[in-house]
Amino acid sequence: MYYRIENHYNRKSKSPGNMSINLMIEKSVNIYSSPQNVWDTLINPEKIKQYFNGAETVTNWQIGGDIIFIHNYQKQKIKNKGVILCFDTNRLLSYTYWTAFSDTADKPENYTTITYSLTEMNERTKLTLTQTNF
After folding, report:
1. Cβ-proximal residues to 108 (8 Å cutoff; 6+ apart), any chain
2. For residues 41 and 133, is the Cβ–Cβ distance under 8 A?
3. Which bin fits 122, alpha (ψ -120 to 50), beta or left (φ > 0)?
4. CATH number belonging to domain 35-132
5. pTM
6. For 11, 24, 93, 100, which has the most beta carbons within 10 A of its beta carbon?
7. How distant is the alpha carbon of residue 14 from its chain centre?
8. Where in the chain are the domains?
9. CA 65: distance to chain centroid?
């Protein structure tokens, strides 16, 4: 298993007190399955529901299209959402993501980017998850 955390500091201002911080987390795991099976787990709404706290996934999986995750939380429906940035079957999925649980305004600068990258390696698939801008 491969695990890496990086902190990137974007110094848009000369004043350290006004420094903008862009964080990145990256984690890779080797899965003893084909890229096709791993991909299906990433994009199949019924499978997403199993690993994403029962969330209902609404999307057309088209680049530029919306992706919405609807969670039931304390008898309320909470919508987390984003936009599909890349959809390369069995290889790469990337989308922006904003959650109502973040206590931030629903503005583009408050969206994180989530990327799943799949690499075939003999009888397994290396799945790399990268999350940036949070």
Report:
1. 96
2. no
3. left
4. 3.30.530.20
5. 0.82
6. 93
7. 31
8. 35-132
9. 15
